[in-house]
Design brief:
This protein has helices at 42-45, 92-102, and strands spanning 8-15, 23-32, 52-53, 72-80, 103-112. The chain is built from 2 helices and 5 strands; from the N terminus they run E-E-H-E-E-H-E. A 5-stranded antiparallel β-sheet has the order 3-2-1-4-5. A hairpin with a 7-residue loop joins strand 1 (8-15) and strand 2. The radius of gyration is 14 Å and the shape is globular. 13% of the residues lie in helices and 34% in strands. By secondary structure, it is mostly beta strands.
């Protein structure tokens, strides 16, 4: 972790060049800051203990796989100074704002032509 102030981690997967504008495919937050790996089948095999999935651009809670090979996808990891407390019916914009308000550092991996 970048700082001893880190209390939790969030991950946001989005599409930065979709024809209809940016699309969020997955939001996962309240990941224990000591987590060092999230497996390939995390949604099927089980989320990290205590973590919460947020809504996507479609309004669905959970993972909505990217599907256009020509698009670029961003996997952004946020170090947060606190856990996020949101009601179950929180919107995507509320969730992303709360993540932004608690962010103390971030890193990003961008994929090009995913298959």
């Amino acid at each position: 972790m970048p700082s001893p102030e880190t209390k939790s981690v969030a991950i946001v997967v989005d599409d930065d060049n979709a024809t209809e504008g940016a699309q969020v495919h997955w939001v996962l937050y309240n990941i224990d800051y000591r987590t060092t790996e999230i497996g390939e089948n995390v949604v099927k095999d089980g989320l990290p203990e205590g973590s919460v999935q947020g809504p996507t651009s479609s309004g669905k809670v959970g993972y909505s796989p990217p599907c256009r090979p020509s698009d670029n996808y961003r996997f952004t990891v946020y170090a947060l100074n606190a856990k996020i407390n949101l009601p179950k019916d929180a919107t995507l914009s509320e969730t992303l704002k709360r993540i932004a308000d608690r962010t103390i550092a971030r890193g990003r991996l961008t994929t090009v032509h995913i298959e």
